[in-house]
Amino acid sequence: MVVTAEQLAGCVAELVRIPSVNPLHRGPIAESAGPIGEAAIAGRLAERLSSLGADDVVLDDVDEGRPNVYARFDGRTDRLVVLDVHTDTVTVEHMTDPPFDGRIDDEFVWGRGALDTKASLGVILALLEQWRADGRTAEPTLLVVGSVCEEAGGLLGAGRFRDWVHERGHRIDQLVVAEPTELAPIHGHKGGVSIEVTVHGKAAHSALPDLGANAIEAMAHVIAAYEAEHRRLQTIEPTTELGTSTLSVTEISGGTGGNVIPAECRITIGQRVVPGQVAHECHERLIEIAHEASPLPVTCRSLLPAQPDGTFGSEAFYQPPDGDLVRTLAGAAGTTPTVAPFGTNALRYGGLARELCVFGPGRIDDAHQATERVAIADLVRLASCYEAWLTPT
Ligand SMILES: [Zn+2]
């Protein structure tokens, strides 16, 4: 039997009705709807996946009350494939629509998370239910992963899942990260590093500036040096469709009064890392530039959590578009593989699977908005893509 549009929409709506706002996006509207965070949806998901015949279901605490869910469905072969769907959503405080009603009309399922990214979770649940009813089994062994902490907080769920895979020595053949990609498989995106730079000067009366050391003026040298580095990076010929590495200063603060020489100035600087660059080397280079350019003492700290090996930053993720996974999904969806300007959980999955891509229904531009919806027609298309991937004939 083919799974119906009603089944697909129903499964997505059920997930939308379980609030799972990322704790860093909490607010009064979210709080009035129930507990903040991923605990409720993780619990429900674990229950649902067990009832669908999962051979193993694990709740893995990433942070207090924030578990990842891993559910394994043994296939006809032991080739291991993974579908990773983040369970958290962004804030609902600016929504003009009821965030958690999960209403279904003729064309859409509505509510926070419908598009980003409960659609993919709902579709795989509906398919597993249908396959169970039909007595069918997927060809590969499928691990469904519900990961926490994607929308804010440093991809902790994805990082924990990667470590869990390494601890168990699992070998993943194919890994799909669910995000809205208009059903075009994303076969690469840039990585990144981000640091905060603080210049330390000395306060004085601004009528007597020579008695102080002006941290803002010193920071101007640092910013000019970063601009020069950005321009240098643009002259390097890109090796992939991802283009060049870029560097941007995005925040600045400093000074305590109009007549005080500023003792401190602080900026945030980020770099988008491309294939061929080593993220922790980019991180070190950003620190070096600040020290070289500033006439005053400088301190730096990473704004991203450390990797398991103690280094900072995420490598780019890239693979050629002609692999089996990307070709299968693009073929089933009738789309063209592409690369993305935004980052996803795939930033934590370098080297974890033989093949990796990001794939899901809807447009990323429509995510995080005052209203959120996913087209039921896209759920139907996604179901046929997962069928082509998991139950090839
Ligand atoms: Zn997302």
TrEMBL record:
Pfam families referenced in this protein's UniProt entry, alphabetically: M20_dimer, Peptidase_M20
Single Gene Ontology MF annotation: metal ion binding
Q: Where is the Peptidase M20 dimerisation domain?
A: 188-293
Q: Does the keyword DNA damage apply?
A: no
- Cofactors (names): Zn(2+)
Q: Which SUPFAM superfamilies match?
A: Bacterial exopeptidase dimerisation domain, Zn-dependent exopeptidases
At the top level, the lineage of the source is: Bacteria
The reply to whether Isomerase figures as a keyword in the UniProt entry is no
Arranged from A to Z, the UniProt key words for this protein are: Hydrolase, Metal-binding, Zinc
Which family does the similarity line name?
Answer: Belongs to the peptidase M20A family.
Per its record, how is this protein called by name?
Acetylornithine deacetylase
Species per Swiss-Prot/TrEMBL record: Ilumatobacter fluminis
Taxonomy, top ranks, is: Bacteria, Bacillati, Actinomycetota, Acidimicrobiia, Acidimicrobiales
